[in-house]
Amino acid sequence: MNKVINLLRLMRPRQWVKNCFVFTGILFANAWHDLQALKHVLLAAIAFSLVSSGVYIVNDLLDRPQDVNHPHKKHRPLAARTVTSGLAASLMVFLWTVGLTLGYLVSMRVLLILSAYVFINLGYSLGLKHVVLLDVFLLASGFMLRILAGTTGVGIAPSPWLLLCGLMVALFLGFAKRRAELYASAEGSTGDRKVLASYQPVLLDKLIVITSTCVILTYSLYTLSEKTIKVHQTESLIYTVPFVMYAIFRYIYSLHNQTMGSDPALEIFRDYHILAAIVGWLLLTLWLIT
Question: What angle do CA 139, 92, 53 make, to 5 degrees?
C-alpha cells in the first residue's frame, strides 16, 4: 500500500489542476453542448495529466542528487529512496505510453502537442532551466500547449486575443514563481536554483507588472472583440473584467507579503479572496454566455 502511495506522490496528481487550461477553448467557444467535443477535451486533459506526470518523474530522476540536500524536496519518493529509479522509469514509460495513445485517439494534433510538451520539458530539465528568461518562457509554453490541445487539437478555432491572454497569464505565473523563490532563497528556506542568481527583485517586479497589465488588457480586448460578441451574442462580458483585475491585484499583494509559495498554479487556491474572484468570474461568465 505504501508503494502505491509513493508512486502516486511521484506522479504529483495535485499538479493536474494546471490542466484546467485544456478546457479554456470549449468554454469560450460555446461548445460545451457538443458531447463529442466535450469527450475529446476530457480525453486530452487526461492525456496531459498522464504525460505531465511522466515529465515530473524525469525531472525527479535528474534532480535527485540535488533534491537529497533540499529541505523540502528531500522528502520526494526518489530523493527519500522510497521508490527505486528502475520502478520510477517504468512508471514514466507507462504514463507516456498511455497518455500519448489517448492523445492519438483524440487527434494527430493532440499527439503532436503532447510530443512537443515532452520535448520542451526534456530540454528544460536537461539544462535550459538555467537560462534566464528562457526558463520562464519554457514554463509558459506548457500552459499554451494545454490551451492549444483543447482548441486546435479538438477542432475548435481559438481566439487570437484569448491565446495572447493565455500566454500573458502563463508568463505572469512564471515570473511570480521566480519572485516567490527569490523571497524563499533570501530567507534560506529553500535550496538554491541556479537561475535565481541571474534574476534581480526589481527586474522580476517589473516583468510581473508588465505581464499582469497585459493579462488585463488582452482579456478586456477579447471581451470587446466583434468575434466574441458574435459567438456569445452578448456585449456584457466586459463586466467580468473587475473579477480578473481583483484576482491579479490580490495575487501580487499576497506575493509581496510572502504568503504565496513557489507554485502559483496551486497557491491561488489557498487564498479565499482569489478563489472568490475566480468563482465570481466563472459564474458571471457562464450566466452571460448561456
Answer: 40
